[in-house]
Amino acid sequence: MHEITAKTILSQSNGMNVYRGCTHGCIYCDSRSVCYNIDHEFTDIGVKANAPELLEKSLRSKRRRCMIGTGSMCDPYLHAEKELLLTRRCLEIIQKYDFGAAVQTKSDLVLRDIDLLQSINHSTKAVVQMTLTTADEELCRIVEPNVCTTKRRFEVLCEMKKAGIPTIVWLCPILPFINDTKENILAIVDYAARAGCVGIISFGMGMTLRDGDRQYYYAALDKHFPQLRREYERRYGAAYEIASPNGGELWRTFTEACEKAGLEYRNDRLFGYLHEFPAEEQLTLDSF
Questions:
Q1: Which residue stretches of the chain have pLDDT < 50?
Q2: How far is the C-alpha of 91 from the C-alpha of 85, rounded, in Å?
Q3: Crossing angle for the helix pair 51-61 and 86-96, nearest 10 degrees?
Q4: What is the pLDDT of residue 41?
């Protein structure tokens, strides 16, 4: 772990990442890709120690309040966050200036900040997003080895529901020949429905692979799923988009299950919901 003195903290779309790199160890992580120009060992976390100060400066100067997102590139609840509290300090600043928060994570450490998220949601709007890839606990420990398993993330979603905080599930990636089964898709939809989620974001039944990410993923295949690498190389070559052979059938299963459960699955509506800042009272998907 090392400190980074950042020059800015918010992107043009009002997203922020207070860390750079990750310690969750997910075998498929796109953030490992060379194109992101991480110039240090991926697990040697770059800590933007001045993130809270930069965020406060940015929010103080904004003419209009909006949703502030975190977690798109780097999980805001890495192991280091337990001691460093940078994400919590940023949430405190978001609360102070009456902005909204959209948090994406795989970690149950987010429960530590449920008081802040509840307060933000009471004043403006807070949304917690959890990534769920597999309902198989043993498989989860292989593909996402250093973070809590899916069952625990479901419990986190339920706790957020009890606190009145809306939630969204990210169902991605779908790894061909690993978690691309009808049973898995239905189980994740069932988790989201039982947790009272707004909906499920999915980018199709597949994954992406590019330089940096691909090499790490293939090494994991060699270790945990012998012979699969050969099948990937034969079927996909160096393609960026890696679709499940059962993608069409799985997508129909997914959409039909979401409709039956009353879960939104259209990404444009879900991203609209995440970015929409309430004027006087919180918006729902029915407000669109």
A1: 281-284, 287-288
A2: 10
A3: 20
A4: 87
Which residues are 187's β-sheet partners?
none
Q: What are phi and psi of 201, to 5 degrees?
A: -90, 130
Q: Which helix (H) or strand (E) holds 100?
A: strand 100-105
What tens digit of pLDDT does each residue of 128-152 get?
Answer: 999 999 999 999 999 999 999 999 9
pLDDT of residue 52: 97
Strand order in the sheet with 2-4: 2-4, 46-48, 19-20
Give the span between the Cα atoms of 18 and 16, in whole angstroms: 6
Burial of 282 (0-12, 13-18, 19+ CB in 10 A): middle
Q: H or E stretch including 235? A: helix 228-236
Query: Cα separations (Å) of 275 from 24, 69, 103, 112?
Result: 26, 8, 12, 24
